[in-house]
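Table 4 source record.
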Amino acid sequence: MIKVVGLGPGHADYIIPMAAQAISEATVIIGYHYYFQFIQHLVHPNALCIGKELSEEEKRAEIAIQHALEGEHVVVIGSGDASIYAMASIVYQKVAEQNLDIPVETVPGISAFITAGSKLGAVLGHDFCCISLSDLMTPWTTIEKRIHAAAMGDFVTGLYNPKSKKRYWQLQTLKNIYLEYRSATTPVAICKQLGRTEEEIKITTLGNLDVNDVDMFCVVLIGNSQTFKYKDHLITPRGYLNRKPETGEEIQQASFAEILNNIPQNTLAKDTLWAAIRCIHTSGDFEYINYLKTSENAISIWHEYLIKGGTIVTDVTMVAAGITKAYTAKYNNKVICLLNDKESLELAEKEGLTRTQAGIKLAAKKYPKALFVIGNAPTALIEIADQIQEGVLSPTGVIGAPVGFINVIESKERLKTINNTPYALITEKRGGSNFAAAIVNAAFTLQEAKI
Protein backbone atom coordinates (compact mmCIF):
# COMPACT_ATOMS: atom_id res chain seq x y z
CA MET A 1 0.00 0.00 0.00
CA ILE A 2 1.28 3.47 -0.95
CA LYS A 3 -0.27 6.68 0.30
CA VAL A 4 0.92 9.91 -1.24
CA VAL A 5 0.37 12.58 1.42
CA GLY A 6 0.26 16.36 1.17
CA LEU A 7 1.59 18.17 4.22
CA GLY A 8 0.23 21.61 3.42
CA PRO A 9 2.54 24.63 3.48
CA GLY A 10 4.55 23.50 6.50
CA HIS A 11 2.94 24.47 9.80
CA ALA A 12 1.49 21.60 11.84
CA ASP A 13 -1.90 23.32 11.93
CA TYR A 14 -2.13 22.95 8.13
CA ILE A 15 -1.76 19.15 8.16
CA ILE A 16 -5.25 17.69 7.85
CA PRO A 17 -6.32 14.77 10.12
CA MET A 18 -6.35 12.26 7.22
CA ALA A 19 -2.72 13.09 6.50
CA ALA A 20 -1.71 12.93 10.15
CA GLN A 21 -3.31 9.48 10.50
CA ALA A 22 -1.63 8.15 7.35
CA ILE A 23 1.79 9.29 8.57
CA SER A 24 1.31 7.82 12.04
CA GLU A 25 0.35 4.43 10.55
CA ALA A 26 3.23 4.30 8.06
CA THR A 27 6.09 1.83 8.43
CA VAL A 28 8.14 3.55 5.68
CA ILE A 29 8.08 7.29 4.93
CA ILE A 30 9.85 8.71 1.89
CA GLY A 31 10.30 12.35 0.90
CA TYR A 32 12.50 15.36 0.43
CA HIS A 33 14.62 15.39 3.58
CA TYR A 34 13.70 19.04 4.38
CA TYR A 35 10.04 18.05 4.95
CA PHE A 36 10.66 15.57 7.78
CA GLN A 37 11.05 18.39 10.30
CA PHE A 38 7.32 19.14 9.90
CA ILE A 39 6.12 15.62 10.79
CA GLN A 40 8.42 14.43 13.57
CA HIS A 41 5.57 14.59 16.07
CA LEU A 42 3.51 12.22 13.90
CA VAL A 43 6.07 9.57 12.90
CA HIS A 44 5.97 6.19 14.66
CA PRO A 45 9.29 5.50 16.47
CA ASN A 46 9.85 2.30 14.48
CA ALA A 47 9.08 3.81 11.08
CA LEU A 48 11.85 3.96 8.48
CA CYS A 49 12.34 7.53 7.20
CA ILE A 50 14.12 7.90 3.86
CA GLY A 51 15.13 11.44 2.87
CA LYS A 52 16.10 12.29 -0.71
CA GLU A 53 17.10 15.42 -2.62
CA LEU A 54 14.76 17.72 -4.60
CA SER A 55 15.82 16.32 -7.94
CA GLU A 56 15.21 12.70 -6.96
CA GLU A 57 11.43 12.49 -7.42
CA GLU A 58 11.56 9.39 -9.63
CA LYS A 59 13.95 7.69 -7.24
CA ARG A 60 11.53 8.33 -4.37
CA ALA A 61 8.71 6.69 -6.34
CA GLU A 62 10.86 3.65 -7.16
CA ILE A 63 11.85 3.22 -3.49
CA ALA A 64 8.19 3.52 -2.47
CA ILE A 65 7.19 0.78 -4.92
CA GLN A 66 10.00 -1.48 -3.73
CA HIS A 67 8.91 -1.23 -0.07
CA ALA A 68 5.22 -1.59 -0.95
CA LEU A 69 5.99 -4.83 -2.80
CA GLU A 70 7.65 -6.03 0.42
CA GLY A 71 4.36 -5.49 2.27
CA GLU A 72 5.20 -2.21 4.01
CA HIS A 73 2.71 0.57 4.64
CA VAL A 74 4.44 3.28 2.61
CA VAL A 75 3.82 7.03 2.77
CA VAL A 76 5.37 9.43 0.26
CA ILE A 77 5.27 12.96 1.62
CA GLY A 78 5.38 16.31 -0.13
CA SER A 79 4.48 19.89 0.64
CA GLY A 80 1.12 21.39 -0.30
CA ASP A 81 -1.30 19.00 -1.98
CA ALA A 82 0.11 15.66 -3.13
CA SER A 83 -1.68 15.85 -6.49
CA ILE A 84 -0.64 19.40 -7.43
CA TYR A 85 2.91 19.73 -8.83
CA ALA A 86 3.85 16.96 -6.44
CA MET A 87 4.63 13.27 -6.02
CA ALA A 88 1.24 11.71 -6.74
CA SER A 89 1.53 11.83 -10.53
CA ILE A 90 5.01 10.27 -10.47
CA VAL A 91 4.02 7.45 -8.11
CA TYR A 92 0.84 6.62 -10.05
CA GLN A 93 2.70 6.79 -13.36
CA LYS A 94 5.43 4.41 -12.17
CA VAL A 95 2.88 1.91 -10.84
CA ALA A 96 0.88 2.10 -14.09
CA GLU A 97 3.96 1.71 -16.31
CA GLN A 98 4.92 -1.49 -14.49
CA ASN A 99 1.30 -2.71 -14.37
CA LEU A 100 1.65 -3.38 -10.65
CA ASP A 101 -1.17 -4.50 -8.38
CA ILE A 102 -0.31 -2.06 -5.61
CA PRO A 103 -3.09 -0.03 -3.94
CA VAL A 104 -2.27 3.66 -4.21
CA GLU A 105 -4.14 6.45 -2.46
CA THR A 106 -3.75 10.24 -2.56
CA VAL A 107 -4.28 12.03 0.73
CA PRO A 108 -5.03 15.71 0.05
CA GLY A 109 -3.21 18.64 1.52
CA ILE A 110 -3.59 22.41 1.49
CA SER A 111 -1.79 23.72 -1.58
CA ALA A 112 0.37 26.83 -1.56
CA PHE A 113 -1.98 28.84 -3.78
CA ILE A 114 -4.96 27.91 -1.56
CA THR A 115 -3.00 29.04 1.49
CA ALA A 116 -2.05 32.25 -0.28
CA GLY A 117 -5.67 32.79 -1.25
CA SER A 118 -6.80 32.51 2.36
CA LYS A 119 -4.02 34.76 3.62
CA LEU A 120 -4.93 37.41 1.05
CA GLY A 121 -8.66 37.18 1.71
CA ALA A 122 -10.55 36.55 -1.52
CA VAL A 123 -8.20 36.76 -4.48
CA LEU A 124 -9.45 33.42 -5.86
CA GLY A 125 -13.06 34.60 -6.04
CA HIS A 126 -13.36 33.97 -9.78
CA ASP A 127 -11.76 31.72 -12.41
CA PHE A 128 -8.10 31.02 -11.74
CA CYS A 129 -5.25 28.86 -12.99
CA CYS A 130 -1.79 27.80 -11.86
CA ILE A 131 1.35 27.75 -13.97
CA SER A 132 4.72 26.28 -13.03
CA LEU A 133 7.65 28.23 -14.46
CA SER A 134 9.99 25.27 -14.08
CA ASP A 135 11.18 24.07 -17.46
CA LEU A 136 12.93 21.00 -16.02
CA MET A 137 10.08 18.74 -17.16
CA THR A 138 8.09 21.02 -19.49
CA PRO A 139 9.55 22.81 -22.53
CA TRP A 140 9.61 26.59 -22.20
CA THR A 141 7.76 26.94 -25.51
CA THR A 142 4.80 25.09 -23.95
CA ILE A 143 4.98 27.16 -20.77
CA GLU A 144 5.04 30.37 -22.81
CA LYS A 145 1.87 29.35 -24.70
CA ARG A 146 0.13 28.76 -21.38
CA ILE A 147 1.27 32.14 -20.08
CA HIS A 148 -0.22 33.92 -23.10
CA ALA A 149 -3.45 31.95 -22.78
CA ALA A 150 -3.84 32.69 -19.07
CA ALA A 151 -3.05 36.38 -19.51
CA MET A 152 -5.41 36.72 -22.47
CA GLY A 153 -8.15 34.77 -20.67
CA ASP A 154 -8.02 37.15 -17.68
CA PHE A 155 -7.45 34.34 -15.18
CA VAL A 156 -6.25 35.03 -11.67
CA THR A 157 -2.92 33.25 -11.90
CA GLY A 158 -0.88 31.36 -9.32
CA LEU A 159 2.80 30.89 -10.15
CA TYR A 160 4.69 27.87 -8.84
CA ASN A 161 8.47 27.58 -9.07
CA PRO A 162 8.64 31.24 -10.06
CA LYS A 163 12.39 31.70 -9.61
CA SER A 164 15.56 29.98 -8.50
CA LYS A 165 19.30 30.40 -9.03
CA LYS A 166 19.13 28.68 -12.41
CA ARG A 167 15.60 29.86 -13.34
CA TYR A 168 16.30 33.57 -13.03
CA TRP A 169 14.76 34.91 -16.25
CA GLN A 170 11.35 33.20 -16.62
CA LEU A 171 9.44 35.41 -14.16
CA GLN A 172 10.57 38.62 -15.88
CA THR A 173 9.50 37.16 -19.22
CA LEU A 174 6.09 36.29 -17.77
CA LYS A 175 5.74 39.81 -16.37
CA ASN A 176 6.45 41.30 -19.80
CA ILE A 177 3.85 39.03 -21.43
CA TYR A 178 1.18 39.82 -18.82
CA LEU A 179 1.73 43.55 -19.33
CA GLU A 180 0.66 43.04 -22.95
CA TYR A 181 -2.79 42.02 -21.70
CA ARG A 182 -3.20 43.49 -18.21
CA SER A 183 -2.97 46.93 -16.66
CA ALA A 184 0.25 47.77 -14.84
CA THR A 185 -1.93 48.46 -11.76
CA THR A 186 -3.08 44.81 -11.58
CA PRO A 187 -2.52 43.61 -7.98
CA VAL A 188 0.21 41.02 -7.40
CA ALA A 189 1.07 39.18 -4.18
CA ILE A 190 4.43 37.58 -3.40
CA CYS A 191 3.83 34.95 -0.72
CA LYS A 192 6.96 33.51 0.87
CA GLN A 193 7.34 30.58 3.28
CA LEU A 194 3.57 30.36 3.79
CA GLY A 195 2.48 28.75 7.04
CA ARG A 196 5.99 28.85 8.47
CA THR A 197 7.63 31.13 11.00
CA GLU A 198 9.45 32.93 8.17
CA GLU A 199 6.18 33.75 6.41
CA GLU A 200 6.21 37.03 4.49
CA ILE A 201 3.57 38.47 2.15
CA LYS A 202 4.18 41.48 -0.07
CA ILE A 203 1.41 43.10 -2.11
CA THR A 204 2.50 45.10 -5.13
CA THR A 205 1.35 45.67 -8.70
CA LEU A 206 2.23 44.03 -11.99
CA GLY A 207 4.07 47.12 -13.14
CA ASN A 208 6.05 47.40 -9.89
CA LEU A 209 6.75 43.69 -9.47
CA ASP A 210 10.45 43.28 -8.67
CA VAL A 211 11.47 39.76 -9.66
CA ASN A 212 14.41 40.01 -7.26
CA ASP A 213 11.91 39.84 -4.36
CA VAL A 214 10.97 36.30 -5.43
CA ASP A 215 12.74 33.02 -4.74
CA MET A 216 11.99 29.27 -4.81
CA PHE A 217 10.13 29.47 -1.49
CA CYS A 218 7.52 31.83 -2.97
CA VAL A 219 4.21 31.44 -4.71
CA VAL A 220 3.11 34.49 -6.69
CA LEU A 221 -0.54 35.39 -7.32
CA ILE A 222 -1.53 37.80 -10.11
CA GLY A 223 -5.04 39.27 -10.01
CA ASN A 224 -7.38 39.56 -12.96
CA SER A 225 -8.75 42.78 -14.45
CA GLN A 226 -11.34 43.07 -11.64
CA THR A 227 -9.12 42.25 -8.65
CA PHE A 228 -8.64 45.11 -6.20
CA LYS A 229 -6.76 45.80 -2.95
CA TYR A 230 -8.56 46.66 0.27
CA LYS A 231 -6.33 47.15 3.30
CA ASP A 232 -4.14 44.01 3.36
CA HIS A 233 -6.53 41.97 1.25
CA LEU A 234 -6.89 41.22 -2.45
CA ILE A 235 -10.47 40.75 -3.60
CA THR A 236 -11.64 39.31 -6.92
CA PRO A 237 -15.41 39.76 -7.38
CA ARG A 238 -17.32 36.55 -8.09
CA GLY A 239 -18.60 38.10 -11.31
CA TYR A 240 -17.89 41.15 -13.45
CA LEU A 241 -21.36 42.43 -12.57
CA ASN A 242 -23.28 42.13 -9.31
CA ARG A 243 -25.68 39.96 -11.29
CA LYS A 244 -26.33 39.05 -14.88
CA PRO A 245 -28.38 41.55 -16.89
CA GLU A 246 -32.03 40.57 -16.84
CA THR A 247 -34.21 43.39 -18.12
CA GLY A 248 -34.30 44.36 -21.78
CA GLU A 249 -32.51 47.61 -21.06
CA GLU A 250 -29.79 45.88 -19.00
CA ILE A 251 -29.20 43.30 -21.72
CA GLN A 252 -29.03 46.02 -24.36
CA GLN A 253 -26.52 48.07 -22.34
CA ALA A 254 -24.40 44.98 -21.70
CA SER A 255 -24.48 44.26 -25.44
CA PHE A 256 -23.32 47.79 -26.26
CA ALA A 257 -20.46 47.45 -23.76
CA GLU A 258 -19.44 44.13 -25.33
CA ILE A 259 -19.47 45.70 -28.79
CA LEU A 260 -17.41 48.67 -27.63
CA ASN A 261 -14.82 46.38 -26.03
CA ASN A 262 -14.38 44.43 -29.27
CA ILE A 263 -14.89 47.07 -31.93
CA PRO A 264 -12.17 47.38 -34.60
CA GLN A 265 -9.77 50.31 -34.56
CA ASN A 266 -11.38 53.37 -36.13
CA THR A 267 -11.28 57.15 -36.32
CA LEU A 268 -15.02 57.79 -36.25
CA ALA A 269 -16.38 60.79 -34.38
CA LYS A 270 -18.22 59.96 -31.16
CA ASP A 271 -21.71 60.48 -32.59
CA THR A 272 -21.00 58.43 -35.73
CA LEU A 273 -19.36 55.67 -33.65
CA TRP A 274 -22.47 55.45 -31.50
CA ALA A 275 -24.62 55.01 -34.61
CA ALA A 276 -22.20 52.34 -35.86
CA ILE A 277 -22.48 50.50 -32.52
CA ARG A 278 -26.27 50.53 -32.87
CA CYS A 279 -25.94 49.12 -36.41
CA ILE A 280 -23.57 46.41 -35.21
CA HIS A 281 -26.00 45.57 -32.42
CA THR A 282 -28.78 45.25 -35.00
CA SER A 283 -26.80 42.99 -37.32
CA GLY A 284 -24.28 41.17 -35.13
CA ASP A 285 -21.70 42.14 -37.77
CA PHE A 286 -18.71 44.27 -36.77
CA GLU A 287 -18.08 45.06 -40.45
CA TYR A 288 -20.89 47.61 -40.31
CA ILE A 289 -18.45 50.02 -38.72
CA ASN A 290 -17.05 50.30 -42.26
CA TYR A 291 -20.43 50.55 -44.01
CA LEU A 292 -21.87 53.50 -42.09
CA LYS A 293 -21.04 56.94 -43.49
CA THR A 294 -22.30 60.24 -42.12
CA SER A 295 -21.77 63.91 -42.76
CA GLU A 296 -20.04 65.82 -39.98
CA ASN A 297 -22.08 66.06 -36.74
CA ALA A 298 -25.15 64.55 -38.40
CA ILE A 299 -26.12 62.34 -35.45
CA SER A 300 -25.52 65.20 -32.99
CA ILE A 301 -27.68 67.58 -35.04
CA TRP A 302 -30.50 65.04 -35.19
CA HIS A 303 -30.24 64.39 -31.46
CA GLU A 304 -30.99 68.04 -30.72
CA TYR A 305 -33.79 68.02 -33.29
CA LEU A 306 -35.46 64.88 -31.98
CA ILE A 307 -35.39 65.70 -28.26
CA LYS A 308 -37.21 68.92 -29.14
CA GLY A 309 -40.06 66.96 -30.70
CA GLY A 310 -38.94 66.90 -34.33
CA THR A 311 -40.95 65.04 -36.96
CA ILE A 312 -39.72 61.85 -38.64
CA VAL A 313 -40.84 60.74 -42.10
CA THR A 314 -40.26 57.13 -43.16
CA ASP A 315 -40.69 55.39 -46.49
CA VAL A 316 -42.15 52.14 -45.10
CA THR A 317 -43.96 50.98 -41.97
CA MET A 318 -41.06 48.65 -41.07
CA VAL A 319 -38.85 51.66 -40.39
CA ALA A 320 -41.56 53.30 -38.31
CA ALA A 321 -42.00 50.08 -36.33
CA GLY A 322 -38.26 49.90 -35.58
CA ILE A 323 -38.06 53.37 -34.04
CA THR A 324 -38.38 52.88 -30.29
CA LYS A 325 -41.79 54.03 -29.12
CA ALA A 326 -40.52 55.00 -25.69
CA TYR A 327 -38.36 57.70 -27.29
CA THR A 328 -41.08 59.16 -29.50
CA ALA A 329 -43.51 59.13 -26.57
CA LYS A 330 -41.01 60.85 -24.31
CA TYR A 331 -40.24 63.66 -26.75
CA ASN A 332 -43.68 63.86 -28.48
CA ASN A 333 -42.33 63.08 -31.94
CA LYS A 334 -44.57 62.36 -34.91
CA VAL A 335 -43.51 59.42 -37.09
CA ILE A 336 -45.10 59.82 -40.51
CA CYS A 337 -45.40 57.10 -43.14
CA LEU A 338 -47.70 57.87 -46.08
CA LEU A 339 -47.03 54.64 -47.96
CA ASN A 340 -50.65 53.50 -47.69
CA ASP A 341 -52.22 56.94 -47.57
CA LYS A 342 -55.14 57.36 -50.02
CA GLU A 343 -53.64 60.53 -51.43
CA SER A 344 -50.31 58.77 -52.01
CA LEU A 345 -52.00 55.92 -53.85
CA GLU A 346 -53.78 58.40 -56.13
CA LEU A 347 -50.53 60.32 -56.76
CA ALA A 348 -48.68 57.08 -57.61
CA GLU A 349 -51.29 56.11 -60.14
CA LYS A 350 -51.54 59.57 -61.62
CA GLU A 351 -47.78 60.13 -62.09
CA GLY A 352 -46.62 56.53 -62.57
CA LEU A 353 -44.62 56.46 -59.34
CA THR A 354 -43.94 53.69 -56.87
CA ARG A 355 -46.06 53.90 -53.72
CA THR A 356 -43.03 54.70 -51.58
CA GLN A 357 -41.90 57.40 -54.00
CA ALA A 358 -45.37 58.91 -54.04
CA GLY A 359 -45.61 58.77 -50.24
CA ILE A 360 -42.27 60.55 -49.85
CA LYS A 361 -43.18 63.13 -52.49
CA LEU A 362 -46.40 63.91 -50.65
CA ALA A 363 -44.66 63.97 -47.24
CA ALA A 364 -42.07 66.38 -48.61
CA LYS A 365 -44.84 68.90 -49.25
CA LYS A 366 -46.44 68.45 -45.86
CA TYR A 367 -43.28 68.10 -43.71
CA PRO A 368 -40.43 69.84 -45.58
CA LYS A 369 -38.26 70.26 -42.44
CA ALA A 370 -38.59 66.67 -41.17
CA LEU A 371 -35.91 64.03 -40.75
CA PHE A 372 -36.43 61.71 -43.72
CA VAL A 373 -35.58 58.06 -43.09
CA ILE A 374 -35.38 55.62 -46.01
CA GLY A 375 -34.91 51.94 -45.22
CA ASN A 376 -36.36 50.17 -48.21
CA ALA A 377 -36.97 52.02 -51.45
CA PRO A 378 -34.15 53.55 -53.50
CA THR A 379 -36.79 55.43 -55.55
CA ALA A 380 -37.84 57.25 -52.38
CA LEU A 381 -34.25 58.25 -51.65
CA ILE A 382 -33.82 59.44 -55.25
CA GLU A 383 -36.98 61.55 -54.91
CA ILE A 384 -35.65 63.22 -51.76
CA ALA A 385 -32.19 63.84 -53.22
CA ASP A 386 -33.66 65.33 -56.41
CA GLN A 387 -35.97 67.64 -54.47
CA ILE A 388 -33.11 68.84 -52.27
CA GLN A 389 -30.93 69.43 -55.35
CA GLU A 390 -33.74 71.45 -56.96
CA GLY A 391 -34.16 73.57 -53.84
CA VAL A 392 -37.70 72.33 -53.25
CA LEU A 393 -36.92 70.49 -50.04
CA SER A 394 -34.68 71.45 -47.10
CA PRO A 395 -35.00 68.66 -44.50
CA THR A 396 -33.26 68.44 -41.14
CA GLY A 397 -31.50 65.41 -42.54
CA VAL A 398 -31.70 62.25 -44.58
CA ILE A 399 -30.94 58.68 -43.54
CA GLY A 400 -30.43 56.50 -46.59
CA ALA A 401 -30.38 52.74 -46.06
CA PRO A 402 -32.27 51.21 -48.97
CA VAL A 403 -31.25 47.67 -49.76
CA GLY A 404 -31.34 45.74 -53.02
CA PHE A 405 -29.84 45.66 -56.51
CA ILE A 406 -31.67 48.18 -58.71
CA ASN A 407 -30.96 51.91 -58.28
CA VAL A 408 -29.55 51.33 -54.77
CA ILE A 409 -25.99 52.50 -55.43
CA GLU A 410 -27.23 55.41 -57.59
CA SER A 411 -29.60 56.65 -54.87
CA LYS A 412 -26.84 56.67 -52.24
CA GLU A 413 -24.36 58.42 -54.54
CA ARG A 414 -26.94 61.18 -55.06
CA LEU A 415 -27.20 61.66 -51.31
CA LYS A 416 -23.43 61.93 -50.82
CA THR A 417 -23.13 64.77 -53.33
CA ILE A 418 -25.70 67.04 -51.66
CA ASN A 419 -24.25 69.88 -49.62
CA ASN A 420 -25.69 71.54 -46.51
CA THR A 421 -27.98 68.61 -45.65
CA PRO A 422 -26.87 66.29 -42.83
CA TYR A 423 -26.98 62.67 -43.95
CA ALA A 424 -26.20 59.13 -42.89
CA LEU A 425 -26.14 56.12 -45.17
CA ILE A 426 -25.31 52.45 -45.30
CA THR A 427 -22.96 52.07 -48.24
CA GLU A 428 -22.99 49.64 -51.15
CA LYS A 429 -26.08 47.43 -51.58
CA ARG A 430 -26.38 46.85 -47.85
CA GLY A 431 -29.00 48.33 -45.57
CA GLY A 432 -32.61 47.77 -44.68
CA SER A 433 -35.33 49.13 -42.44
CA ASN A 434 -33.66 47.83 -39.28
CA PHE A 435 -30.50 49.85 -39.97
CA ALA A 436 -32.46 53.00 -40.80
CA ALA A 437 -34.35 52.69 -37.51
CA ALA A 438 -31.12 51.89 -35.60
CA ILE A 439 -29.57 55.18 -36.77
CA VAL A 440 -32.64 57.11 -35.63
CA ASN A 441 -32.51 55.36 -32.25
CA ALA A 442 -28.82 56.25 -32.01
CA ALA A 443 -29.69 59.92 -32.49
CA PHE A 444 -32.35 59.71 -29.78
CA THR A 445 -29.91 58.15 -27.29
CA LEU A 446 -26.68 59.98 -28.05
CA GLN A 447 -26.46 61.27 -24.47
CA GLU A 448 -26.35 57.62 -23.28
CA ALA A 449 -23.28 56.78 -25.38
CA LYS A 450 -20.44 55.74 -23.06
CA ILE A 451 -17.63 56.09 -25.55
